[in-house]
Amino acid sequence: MDTAHILLTLKQGPRSLENYIQEYLAIAYYSDLPDCLLIEFFCDGINQPLRSKLRHEGPCSSLCQFMDYALLTVGSLFTVGVAEEECGTASRTEMVAAPERTHKMAATTTGHVITAIREPSQVTTDLREPSQVTTDLREPSQVTTDLREPSQVTTDLREPSQVTTDLREPSQVTTDLREPSQVTTDLREPSQVTTDLREPSQVTTDLREPSQVTTDLCEPSKITVDLHESSQVTADLHELSQVTVDLREPSQVTVDLCEPSKITVDLHEPSQVTTDLCEPSQVTTDLREPRQVTTDLHEPSQVTADLHELSQVTVDLREPSQVTVDLCEPSKITVDLHESSQVTVDRHESSQVMVDRHG
Asked: Are 247 and 271 in contact (CB under 8 A)?
């Protein structure tokens, strides 16, 4: 059998790189050609543009290392090494090469990755192209994902875990947290974050471009959102919670608080804040530009608003409450008091206060 001629005419064609390597190694096993020629014949059969990349960057020390580099370049989970009988099924992702050419390299997880982690673990993923990552974490774990292109990350965390995501392009992050967990997301482009938190958790989101954040918190939780561009934040808090929102551009914040909670909103541009507080709560609002604030307080609560520009504050108080407003520019305040309440207004400029007392 003329193995040299067979190897020289062998081509990858429509097959995967793994299948091509397996057939190439099966034939090269019977050849006595030096590695330099085996590498050259192997390169000739690889499809472009990988062929050019390997010719310029591939290690030529051995055929095994060269094939490992090729697999690493395409993000394959396979490596090339020696098949040992005692390995059993544990080496199913290891291809067979000549015994004297033992070498093994770790593979990246570029592409479509599905990971199931049963014990405390750490997963780090760097995705350079459109990709999808699905991770199921059964024990305390940490997931770090750097997404360079449009991508989707779906994470199901069963135990205390931490998820850190850096999204460079339009992306979607969906996270289902079953136990105390922390999610940190840095969104560089238009993105959407959907988070369902089943236990005490913390969500920190830094949105650099127009984005949407939807969060459903079923237990005591904390949400911190820093919005750099036009954005929308919707939060449904079922238990003791704290929401801190820093809005840099025109934005809308809608918060539904079902238990004692605290909301702090710092609005840097014209914005609208609508808050429905069902239990004793505190709302602190610092308004730098013209905007409108609407607050519906169902229980004893305190509202503090510092308005630096033309603004309008509408407050509907159902129970004993206190409203303190510091107005630095022409503004309008409308307060509807259903029970014993106190309204304190410090007016620096021309302002208007209307009070409708029902109690």
From this structure: yes
Higher-confidence residue: 243 or 102? 243
The H-or-E segment that residue 230 falls in is none
d(C-alpha 276, C-alpha 288), whole Å: 22
Do 224 and 285 sit in the same domain of this protein?
Answer: no
Same domain, 233 and 255: no
User: What DSSP assignment string belongs to 89-125?
Assistant: GGGTTEEE--TT----------SEEEEEE-SSEEEEE
Q: List all residues 6 or more positions away from 5 whose beta carbon is below 8 Å from its beta carbon.
A: none
Cα separation, 33 vs 255, in Å, equals 71
Residue 101 confidence (pLDDT) above 50:
no
> Is the same domain home to 123 and 173?
yes
pLDDT of 121 above 50: no
Pairing of strands 341-347, 261-267: unpaired
Domain boundary among 209, 243, 277: 243
Does 159 share its domain with 82? Answer: no
Q: Which range has the worst mean pLDDT, 74-83, 148-157, 265-274?
A: 148-157
Does 53 score more than 70 pLDDT?
A: yes
Q: Are both 181 and 138 inside the same structural domain?
A: yes
Asked if 138 and 78 sit in the same domain, the reply is no
From 96, 124, 154, give the residue that closes a domain.
96
Q: What angle do CA 307, 310, 313 make, to 5 degrees?
A: 60
195 within a domain of the structure (yes/no): yes
- The answer to whether residues 236 and 320 belong to one domain is no
Q: In what order do the strands lie in the sheet with 201-207?
A: 121-127, 141-147, 161-167, 181-187, 201-207, 221-227, 241-247, 261-267, 281-287, 301-307, 321-327, 341-347
The pLDDT tens digits for 193-234 are 666 655 566 666 665 666 666 666 566 666 666 666 666 666
102 part of a folded domain: no
d(CA 26, CA 5): 14
The four Cα atoms 103, 106, 111, 117 give a dihedral, to 10 degrees, of: 130
Q: pLDDT per residue over 13-34, tens digit each?
A: 999 999 999 999 999 988 889 9
Q: What are the pLDDT digits (tens) for 169-187?
A: 556 555 555 555 665 566 5
Q: Residue 56 sits in which domain range?
A: 3-96
Q: What is the pTM of this model?
A: 0.43
